[in-house]
Amino acid sequence: MTAQETDASGPRDPLSHEAPTFPVGAGRDAPSPIDYTPAQQEFRAEIRDWLAANAPDEMRGVEVPRAPVPELDARIRRWADTLTEARYMCVAWPTEYGGRGLSGVEVSIMNEEFGRADVPRLTRGMGESLVGPAVITHATEEQKSRILPPIISGEHDYCQGFSEPEAGSDLASLRTTGVVDGDELVINGQKVWTSGFWKANRIFLLCRTNPDAPKHRGISYVLTSVEDNGVEFRPITRMTGKALFSETFFTDTRASLDDVIGGLDNGWRVAMTTLGSERGGSATTQHVAFLRQFWRLVDEVRKRGLIDDVRVREQLAWAYSQVETIRFTGLGLVADLASGGTGRGAGNGSTSKIRWSEYQRRMTEIAMDLLGPDALVVGEDYDLGHWQEEFLVTRSHTIWGGTAEVQRNIVAERVLGLPKDPAPGGAR
Hints:
By secondary structure, the protein is of the alpha+beta class. It has 11 helices and 10 strands.
């Protein structure tokens, strides 16, 4: 029970009162399973005070859109500039590379405080979370000094070129080639499921630079421009009617050998750094968005006069308990970090992915059910409501980033020590 769930007369029904500005379970006085150090508590106060003085009203309650929203672009740019000036971009990067060197605990604290202030904690996207860690871990000092500053400033915006039509879960089977020509690579091939293509001016990709090497070797991790460089994006329209992904075609695309990270033919280990960041990066903070979504649904239920319906309350109780499970799992990772661990225990990334992706699918199914017939009505030009779009978007969450089935195999084999599934057609 948290301070937000009680009053002088004792416990209150958390669904009977107006949703708090910051969600129940993560409020100002909520107890925590973590004993934060005085330095960490001081850092929380610093973030809270800075946000109180600098968070603009025009960004309160704004959710960063998945696709271009022209009326939000200027506001988001202004807020991003403010965060950059205050050195609140790329905060987990080491200070010598322009970051603040924040620990996992401090990043979690920062995200919670931005959630409390109800303003988006903007980042530099894939450049910050995926390219940056790979460059910092594997690049030369010259590459770091040249590649990292434009990410922090927002000059370089990256999209990802990993998956291919026949190389998704088995990424090492990729066929895109890179042939050395003087001091450049000439890249030809195709990628798919390129997210963020509509705003990117650069791409990080994997290509095969040694066709005679075993498939996990002979692969290089390359950065290059997408502008006037033989890169063609063909948007893939999703069920929502929006094109957030694309097919990507490379035709004699040029990349400098100076932008090969980790050296030629050594890209697989660099890619593993990127994939580790992709799958585990938000485990300690994603509950903030889930709680905000939960209270949005509670508001919808209240407006429809369904708040006292026992069946509805059971569904909401299930959703809330799942979000709290996700929150405490994340706090467990933070506690591990706080005690000197890595937060990357066996199976953590896989179990987190299974839990949140399956929760979000079920949560939006509940929302659509509660909307009743309204769930079937769309606006002019296929204009979807919030819950309709969330329902369609979450259909893919148990597929991308590693399917739920693959993640369960990882847990079974690497954590529980169970034998691998037999090959198709093989003996059982």
